[in-house]
Amino acid sequence: MISNSYTLASQLLERNTAYFEDKDLLIAGYIEDTYPTELAKIAKKVTLFSYDYSAKLHYDNVSNIDNHCSTEYQAAKKHQVALIYMSKSKAEVTYLLANITEHLEDGAMIFMVGENNAGIRSANKFFAPYGDICNKLDAARRSSLFVTELNKPVAKFVQDDWVTTFPITVNSIELTVCTLPGVFSHGKLDTGSKILLNNLHKKPSGRVLDLGCGAGIIGSYIAKRFPASKVEMTDVSALAVKSSQLTLAANELAGQAYLSDVYSDISGKFDYIISNPPFHAGLKTHYASTETFLKEANGYINPRGHLVLVANSFLKYPEIIEASFGHCLLQIKSSKFAVYYANK
Q1: What CATH number does residue 77 fall under?
Q2: Which of 88, 126, 161, 199 has the least CB density, counted as fewest CB within 10 Å?
Q3: Which residues pair with 114 in a beta bridge?
Q4: How many CB atoms lie within 10 A of CB 115?
């Protein structure tokens, strides 16, 4: 969700605009606000590249910004300057830099901005493969701005080199899971998904939606264990959707994985909606997307259809489910997680 209120990092950039004036500027990373529209007023050209589909949906409506959302950046010409908004995932930042640097001019200036608690102080380590010197330009609003000059050779980006694969077994169902950096469940089966798959209330059948699919573990498990089901997986992260597509392919499973910001790109209704929804956006605890998902779920489920999700047990999701469906059943509860169920 893009906010009209500037983040602390963007507030710091407001007093450093001279670096971007009349430049061909690539803005990349975790973009949370509308500040790029201000930079577009002073730069020669602004291109935005994000793995977050909500940013694409917002900036598609901004006429003077060239907007991209994918896992591999492609540019018609090389950029003079890049501005990286720091993500909470250091692995994702490393991946992003490798992804974009071959599309920068030799000697391009690469800026990185972020809140201090997001790991921005490690900018020198991120920049080391690309520039000899990393300078701290400014610090305020609990944020910092760093820069380096691109003066080292850049390797061609090959996405396959960044894919991690690992095996999992749940209820005798064996899967090979593929993940890209920054994706939930990167390199392991998370506890919440394991509890959910061990405690499915009803047999999934018909059209099934795994919303917030991450690496595609839940949807792929259903596709393999219940092959008559028609599985669709969605996520707001391009990295997650690509990981889910790779997981489906690695296991030779039928199914779809596509981008959607909650229900933005979903059409029709489902017989079974299942989710292990995230509740963090960047560094912040963020419930809005999951609350929207639960409040509107009834409208996306067929008669006699089912909703099943796992969540941290301290979250107040049962009240939202009950308001939407008229009831909410607790399937199982551990010290940390709970599995909830409702039917239409």
Answers
A1: 3.40.50.150
A2: 161
A3: 144
A4: 20
Q: What is the pTM of this model?
A: 0.95
Decide if 184 contacts 233 (C-beta within 8 A): no
Low-confidence ranges of the chain (pLDDT < 70): 186, 279-286
Same domain, 77 and 195: no
Lookup result for tokens 């990393």: 134
CA-wise closest residue to 232 among 93, 240, 224, 223? 223
User: Checking DSSP bridges between strand 301-312 and strand 45-50, what pairing results, if any?
Assistant: unpaired
Q: What is the pLDDT of residues 149-184, one digit of tens each?
A: 999 999 999 999 999 999 999 999 999 999 999 998
Q: Of 139, 159, 179, at which residue does a domain stop?
A: 159
Q: Residue 255: what residue type? A: G
Q: Which domain holds residue 25?
A: 8-159
pLDDT tens for 21-34 read 999 999 999 999 99
Contacts of 158 (CB under 8 A, 6+ apart): none
